[in-house]
Design a protein that fits this description.
This protein is an alpha+beta fold. The chain has one domain (6-148): 2-Layer Sandwich (HIT family, subunit A), CATH 3.30.428.10. 38% of the residues lie in helices and 16% in strands. The protein is built from four helices and five strands.
Length: 152
């Protein structure tokens, strides 16, 4: 068995990270299904299949960049502009007290923002996800699409 150097390992990891398409890129290309609730030329939004709370929505730039702070300025600004608009729409649709926002990116190396309707503290724990059926996902998708319909 050949042992590679730490530098080679890092180079291989970075190549994989930047060459391999993320699951979100595959969703954007319609190679894998998702409950798409909103889309324009620069962003797509889908429901999380393992929601922390019902209505848990992901806002994703179409450009695959691992860390949000590595986005170009225009995309970065638009991402947070849309985050605000989505939060207002989701709070209204789910009659929640707040919409929690999470960016961590360990699961998928493609910038994405989690927007989660919440009513109490400690509701943003990904290990306490809710089970959701495909039918319920579609129903929630309709609700979120209705809430986001006026966002361009």
């Amino acid at each position: 068995m050949k042992i590679i150097s730490p530098i080679s390992f890092v180079i291989l990891y970075l190549l994989k990270l930047y060459v391999e398409e993320s699951i979100f890129t595959k969703i954007i290309k319609r190679e894998i299904p998702a409950e798409i609730v909103w889309e324009n030329d620069e962003f797509i939004s889908i429901l999380d299949i393992r929601p922390m709370q019902i209505g848990h929505t992901l806002l994703i730039p179409k450009v695959q960049v691992d860390k949000f702070y590595d986005l170009d300025e225009k995309t970065y600004s638009k991402l947070f502009e849309y985050t605000k608009l989505f939060a207002i729409a989701l709070e209204k649709a789910y009659k929640s007290k707040r919409v929690g926002v999470v960016i961590e990116g360990f699961g998928v190396p493609h910038t994405h923002i989690h927007l989660v309707p919440i009513n109490k503290g400690n509701s943003l724990n990904p290990y306490r996800f809710k089970e959701i059926t495909k039918e319920d996902l579609k129903t929630e998708g309709e609700k979120v699409r209705e809430a986001l319909k006026d966002i361009k």
